[in-house]
User: Fold this.
Amino acid sequence: MKKVILGLFVAGTFLVSCGGPSPVKTVEDAVKLKEDINAAEESRLESKMDGEKELLALTEKWNKEEETLLKDYGSPKENKGMNELEKAVKLNDEKAIDVWMSYKIAEREMEKEKAKIKEGFAKSEKQLDLEWALTTTETLLGLIHNGDKKKDFEADKKKLETELDRLTKVAEATEDKKHAEFKTWYDSEFKGDKETLGKEYNPFTKSSK
Assistant:
């Protein structure tokens, strides 16, 4: 790999002076960035799988609580129970008003629990920084590889394209693996209401090749 000297930067440590993930100047370092991104994403998907299982358990808990709250007004399915409850509220029925308020409080608490779980699904700041660093690196190497001396960098350009394509397929395979693992768990171990959720329920989207 040819060493590249960027005349625009007087200090060679400029790119790493901020302390976080930085753009890099070589194909090898770009590949390492992509490997780090893949590792971070795999870890995130592991956490997401655990979180999705927690969400299913929370949904089951809420379904039972909802049935209990609306037991005097009908099934929650297709909003029948809530419709009947609201009709009673409109008649200024004190019991119905109290039940309606209790329902809304319980629903709000459930939504807060869901939101807390879903916070763990997001990409970390480190992962976002790594992705930014790789995108910026690809722009930088694109300029270098297609500059006045682009013939000198044809091998490097090809290597970068090949390696990033390979690692993208590795990432897709990891996502597919999580899809399959969740499906196996859902089909064989989850004992909740599959009729409501759907037989093919799976929050992991299988990557298209």
User: Anything to note?
Assistant: The chain has a mean pLDDT of 87. The CA atoms of residues 82 and 100 lie 8 Å apart.
